Amino acid sequence: MSDTPKSFRVGLVQMCAGRMVDRNIAAATELIRAAARGGAQYVQTPEMTNILELDRERLLAAIKPEVDDPGVTQFRFLARELGIWLHVGSLALVGERGRPVNRSLLISPEGRIDARYDKIHMFDVDLPGGESYRESASYEPGHEAVVAALPWGQLGMTICYDLRFPHLHRALAKAGARFLAVPAAFTKPTGLAHWHTLLRARAIENQCYVFAAGQGGCHENGRETFGHSLVISPWGEVLAEADVQPAVTFADVELQRLEDVRRQVPSLRHDRPFDVVYAADTPPNEVAS
Ligand SMILES: O=C(O)CNC(=O)[C@H](CS)NC(=O)CCC(=O)C(=O)O
């Protein structure tokens, strides 16, 4: 008999981060406390919890290496004080190679940093409405997918635009993840078009719970983000959803549900190898005359 607890409560912190790091940390702290008061044992904050700033010069002036970062210090204290698993969806930090990284941290209830994940896929896009992003101009991408242990099972760590790369989520699920984390700062137009659909697809195809805390609303730097933080079941059901403004969204995660779904439709175990061929290169069928 395993002594893994049968359920736990998730709290997603939705924020509207600005350019001032100390204000963002204070706003996040208040919502994380509210999440813990509401009984959340795993609390996730969105991408760019400490600063939403795409201007490279301003960003460089505002951020610090992980060891000196005031947010890291604060969130470690907070996790320990509240006795929660605190997943800081991401912080802009100066990486070990001197360039900014978009980094997610999983902090244990003892205040230990148990996992770090640097966003792999850079949001370099030109949207139909005229919005343009060049994340790779400011940030250095990561190269490692990360699975981290929670008391209830493994957590696969991703960030925002990573959501569009299904093989990353597949790899995490194959490596044992039962929960996929997608902290985000989705744009409003792409959120409207794709957010629910992609998150539900990642949950259904990988038979995982999906936890996605978002940024939402109009930010100091002129951006507007989509909000709608979501908790999704392995069957694709929306268990809880935020609106656009800052708030905490709660859901109870039932591990038996995940086991049931995986037993009933074992698609996660039905992957098979195959080749891709060009039809023109295959021999024509015999046509009966
Ligand atoms: O750097 C910051 O200030 C905050 N970071 C972000 O907003 C990131 C990179 S620009 N946003 C996304 O990845 C949005 C993805 C998205 O919206 C989609 O895939 O449709």
Automatic annotation (TrEMBL):
<feature type="domain" description="CN hydrolase">
    <location>
        <begin position="8"/>
        <end position="255"/>
    </location>
</feature>
<dbReference type="InterPro" id="IPR036526">
    <property type="entry name" value="C-N_Hydrolase_sf"/>
</dbReference>
<dbReference type="InterPro" id="IPR045254">
    <property type="entry name" value="Nit1/2_C-N_Hydrolase"/>
</dbReference>
<keyword id="KW-0378">Hydrolase</keyword>
<dbReference type="InterPro" id="IPR003010">
    <property type="entry name" value="C-N_Hydrolase"/>
</dbReference>
<comment type="similarity">
    <text>Belongs to the carbon-nitrogen hydrolase superfamily. NIT1/NIT2 family.</text>
</comment>
<dbReference type="GO" id="GO:0016811">
    <property type="term" value="F:hydrolase activity, acting on carbon-nitrogen (but not peptide) bonds, in linear amides"/>
</dbReference>
<dbReference type="Pfam" id="PF00795">
    <property type="entry name" value="CN_hydrolase"/>
</dbReference>
<dbReference type="InterPro" id="IPR001110">
    <property type="entry name" value="UPF0012_CS"/>
</dbReference>
<protein>
    <submittedName>
        <fullName>Carbon-nitrogen hydrolase family protein</fullName>
    </submittedName>
</protein>
